[in-house]
Amino acid sequence: MASHHVARELVALGHEVKQVPPAYSKPFRQGHKNDFRDAHAVAEAVERSSTRCVPIIAPHGRSIHKYMARRRKPPSQGWRTFLRNHADGIAAMDLFVVPTISFRLLSGLLILRHDRRRLLLLETTTHPTAEWIARQLTEVCGWDEAPRYLIRDRDRSYGEVFVRRVRAMGIRDRPTSLRSPWQNGYAERLIGSIRGECITNMRGLTCDRHRLIFKPYV
Hints:
Nucleotidyltransferase, domain 5, 39% helix
């Protein structure tokens, strides 16, 4: 509160005082922190019209402000709470890669609902594109029975075409955080089971017979 005391003294001397929060002046500071650069950053921030100044607290209002109840924001909903509260309206989607016996990479796409862990789609392709993924989502979920939320990772295969299709269907897109596979745990667990089958069942590692492995899951 020392800054408010200095501001009150300067106002008493007839000066115009503007107090700027540190967060507004920090982007204008050049180099390492020192008094000269801090003063230059504050002067630069005050000249901007978008900078919000802090009102000067009166001496008698300082003690009152100390004992006033602070307004608390409602607690934000965590990811685990979100999954638990909206399980009946969540669909999870994920892409995965399985090797073939001819050393080719086969891309798989799965879509499942969280309410009863129902697997809605399990398809493969050699060239996963945004158009192909959007078409699979439309054919499986439809326009009338679309889920409220869609959980997916941030793979580049989900292009602008896919994002526009999700919005058109009225689905709220919820991409997971970077390097956080636990946020899409149901899909990741199923992918782990499928990859385990690919390793133990070598006869299904050809592109023509990949459904021998995937058929029991559908």
